[in-house]
Every structure is written in C-alpha cells, then in structure tokens.
Amino acid sequence: MASNDPNSPRQKMINLMYLVFIAMLALNVSSEVLDGFELVEASLLRSVKASTQHNDRIFDDLATYHKSNPQKTQEWYDKGEQVKNNTDSLFNYIQYLKEKIVKKADGKNGDPEHLEHPDDLNAAYDVMFAKGKNDGAKLKTQIDEYREYVTSLVSNPEIKNIISSNLSTEVPEKSKLNNLKWEEAMFENMPMAAAVTILTKLQNDIRYAQGEVLGDLLKNVDLTDFRVNKIKAFVIPDAQIVMRGSEYRAHIGLVAQDSTQTPKIFVNNQWMDPSLNGQFAVRAASTGTFSVQGYIEMPRRDGSTLTENFSEQYFVVEPSATIAPVLMNVLYAGIDNDISIAAPGMVSQNVTATINNGSLTRKSNDIWVAKPSKIGEDAVITVVAKTADGRSLEMGKKSFRVRKLPDPMAYLSVPDANGNADKFTGGPLSKAALANVDVLKAAIDDGILNTAFTVLRFELVTTDGMGMTLTEISDGARFSERQKSLIRNLNRGKRAYIRGVMVKSPGPGGDERTLKTATEIIIN
Question: Is 108 inside a domain boundary?
C-alpha cells in the first residue's frame, strides 16, 4: 500500500502536478476574453481613423491660411508641421511593433486586424524584450518625450491634463508591488490580442493629442484678418454728390484697419495731420469733377511698411444725392438690407430708386430695403428724382458688393435664472439643462445682423470611461434618441462637443454649409 506521508516522493509528485495544472489554467485565456479584445480593437481602429481624418482637416486649414498669408502664420504652421511629423513618427513606430508581434505569432503574412493566434503568450514578450533592442523601453522613452512635447504646446490646462493622463507611463500600483517596469507591466505574459489592443489604444491617444494641439495652434491665427484676401485703401464720403458752396467730407482709411496702429496718409500732394484720424475735408467752391488720391502707409509687426494707393472722385453739382447703407458697406444676398437714400433739396416722395440685382422697396421716407439675389455680382442702385417741371433727373448711382451671409453661431436655448431663454454657445452647463434641450439652433446675432439659419444635422461627440470617442449624428435640428442617451450617461466634469453642424442660409435657394467651430459643453 502506498504511503500517505506528505513528504513522500509520491505526494511530492502529486503536489508538483497540481501546481503545473493550476499554471496551465492561468495561462489558458478564455475565448470570451479574446473576443472582448477583438471588439475593443475594432472600436479603437474606427476611432483612430476618425481622429486621423479630423486632424488632417485641421492641418489642411492651417496650410490654407499659411498659403494665403505665410508671413503671419509661419510660426504656427511650422509648429503644426512639426507636431504632425512627430505624431506620425511615433504612430508608425507603434504600428511597426504591432506588425512585428503579429508576424511573430502568425507568420510572415500575419495581419494585426485579423489575428490567427490571439492567445499566444510569447510573441509580445519576444518582440518587446528582445536582446540588444528592448523595444519596450524604447517605446516608453518615445511616449515620454512626445507627451512632454505636445503638452508644452497646449494652453488649456484641462486638455493638458487629459493628454498627460492618456499618455502616462506611470507603473500601475499592483505592478509596483512586484517592482515591474512600465513596459513589463504592459507586455510581459500578455496575450497577443491584449498587446495589440494596448498598442492601438496608444495610437488613438496620440492622435487625440495631435488634434488638440493642432486645434490650439489654429486658434492662434488671426482668422478675421486672415480672411481678408486683400488689404485695400478706401474713401468713404459723407456725400458723393455735394451742393456748390458746401464742403465735401470723406473718411480715408484701410479696410480691416488695425485700431492699435495710426496710418500715415498722403492725400492730394500733402501729408494729413494725424490728429484728424483720417477725416478729410475740402471746400467745394465750384461745380465739376474732383479727385481725392494718394497713399497710406501702415507699419507691420515685422518692422516693414505696407503702402496702399487710393484714388476716388467726387462731383460737385447743383442738385445732389447720397446713398449709404445703414448697416454696412456690403449687401447680403437673401435677406433685407436697409439702405438710406436721400436727395437734398428734393421731397422724399419725389425720389425713386432701382437696383439691377434683386429687389429694392421703400420702407419709410428715406429708408429702402435692398434684397440682392446674385452673389458675386455687384448691385448698382440708381436714384432718380422728379423735378418741379415734371422731368425725371438721375441723381446718382452706387455700386455695392454682394456677399453671402457669414457663418452663424450654433447655440442652445437654455433658460437663465429668471426663466428667460438664453443663448448658450459653450462652457459649463448642468446635465439636467442639457437633457431638457431638444433642438440645436444657429443664427447670426452680432448686433448688426440678426438672422436665423436652418440646422440640417449635427454631431454630438463625447468619450466613454475608456477614453474612446463616441459620436452620434442627428437627423435634423433635434437631438436624436441616441444623442439623448449619450447625454444621460455623462458624468460631472465630462465634456461633450457639438460639431459638424450643417446649416442652410435663409431665403430661396439658400446655400448649405458646415460650421467650422465646435461647441464645447462641460457638465457641471
């Protein structure tokens, strides 16, 4: 009969076999877990693709601004290009490691997106800790350097903290107890499916960091000044036709003028007094055609001088007419533009006006409403007055540039503390207030124009607990049920973004456009 002595050779053999059996169970990764890694990997790949496309669009915008005005955008373009190059370099290195691990397990034709041996426990270790290379330590060093570089370019402290957290190489607490390094904690004894998913998450995190940095750089470009494709001198007369014996008065300056700079104006063969602030006046002593011409000098930030010539004529006649826009020096297609039309010495009821582009109707005695129809084609307004003897006399003409409406601002109508509707355009907002909003609106409301646009669709973007991007698209201006579900799952401090807002401008044949600015919502 065999002995039951715990120290007998037979019992020692049984104990050893038990330990081996337990180890084999520990190494046997369940198919459910591997399937889970496959689902996470697929989701991360979609997020990486979306982030890459988003980042490419931002960089293309930066490149377009640089092409239009390299002098003012060179610094930001150079930084953006360096961020892109550094990100692509680290991204491609991680991709190289993924492919190397997969080929180690599945052979030379191995594909990271179609794993044949996802439970392989040796491939990741063999690649990341190969003698003489130690790609694991090299990867950690490159991530640390990249994290420090990109966070130095981000001005928003909250975004800086998110990037630092996503790209942290801090060793997990449990791994610290076993004195493991970061690369050992990530890849030692790790199934191939898990190692590949970890590397894909790193790729997703660096694409997110790239997008935040490029977005921050783009904000540093002076968009308002940059969108002016030509700086042009202008002469704005108080009246283009003046009465004999009165004064011709005009304001001379630059379109998109920088109020912090005082230009030097040389007009009609003499320098203007700077204290006049460009207000030019000369007495109209006789009838005829007269010129106002010269040039304007404006210092640039780099020390050079911008010189722009100007030339304008004015007419001194017995009768006269003035045509001036109430709101601005352009007309917008598709909406009502108030125009002031008057003929000094003439009764308002005897003054008529026509326009060659669109319609022109009288609103009150001296206020008319112009509604141009064709964008890019000047609108010429002609004023005719009926004289005392019954003749129709042309008093003057004025040509206006016709432009499409500028982009509106997307906003949510949220009640304020008094219950009055308030336009929320971004920032902290309670979850309850956000959940109660059903419709996204868009309008131009800048104190000059007050025009509503039709919202066709928009995206609601947030992240889940794993930092993965979640995107839902509406069918129109109303939040979809899926978007409402994302909102209900938001926690305090989380961020949601409304972006990709497509709108239609008012009026017949209104154009459709996608707004470039995203609305950031911080749940408080």
Answer: yes
One-letter identity of residue 518:
A
Task: DSSP for 446-469, please give it.
Answer: SSS-EEEEEEEEEEEEEE-TTS-E
For the ranges 80-89, 117-126, 404-413, the lowest mean pLDDT is seen at: 117-126
E strand intervals along 135-224: none
Number of H helices, E strands in the chain: 12, 25
Sign of CA dihedral 221, 222, 226, 232: negative
The domain boundary residue, chosen from 299, 318, 337: 318
Instruction: Give per-residue pLDDT as tens, 12-28.
Output: 454 555 444 434 434 44
Q: Which two tokens stand for residue 429?
A: 């907002």
User: In this predicted structure, what is the pLDDT of residue 230?
Assistant: 53
Tell me the C-alpha to C-alpha distance, in Å, between residue 190 and each of 88, 185, 274, 315.
Answer: 26, 9, 75, 86
Q: Calculate helix-pair angle for 135-151, 70-106, nearest 10 degrees.
A: 160
Distance of alpha carbon 507 from its chain centroid, rounded?
26
Q: Which of 318, 349, 372 is the endpoint of a domain?
A: 318
Distance of CA 120 to the CA centre of its chain: 44
- Provide the token pair at 344: 């000094």
Quote the pLDDT of residue 501: 95
Q: Could you tell me the two tokens for 294?
A: 């010269």
Q: Are 134 and 125 in contact (CB under 8 A)?
A: no
Contacts of 13 (CB under 8 A, 6+ apart): none
Helix axes 70-106, 31-68, angle to 10 degrees: 160
Answer yes or no: do 195 and 302 share one domain. no
Statement to judge: residues 153 and 294 lie in one domain: no
| Percentage of the chain lying above the pLDDT 70 cut | 80
Q: Which residues pair with 292 in a beta bridge?
A: 312
Phi first, then psi, for residue 57 (nearest 5°) are -65, -40
Q: Which domain holds residue 364?
A: 319-404
